[in-house]
Amino acid sequence: MAVIQNTSAVFPVSGSFATNPPASGYFIPAVWSAKLNAKFYAASVYGDIANTNWQGEISGMGDKIFINNAPTITVADYVAGTNLTYQAPTPDTQEIVIDKGKYFAFQVADVLEYQAKPNLLDMFGNDAAEQMRIKIDSNVIYNTFLNGAAANKGKTAGAKSSGYDLGNPVSPITLTPALALQKILEMASVLDEQNAPDTDRWLLIDPYTRAMLMQSNLSQAQFMGDAQSMVRNGKIGTIDRFTVYVTNQLPKIAAGANTAWTSGDFSETSLVSTGTNVASRALVAGHKAAITFASQITKMETVRNPNDFGDFIRSLNVYGFKVVKPEALALAVVK
Question: What is the pTM of this model?
Answer without folding.
Answer: 0.73
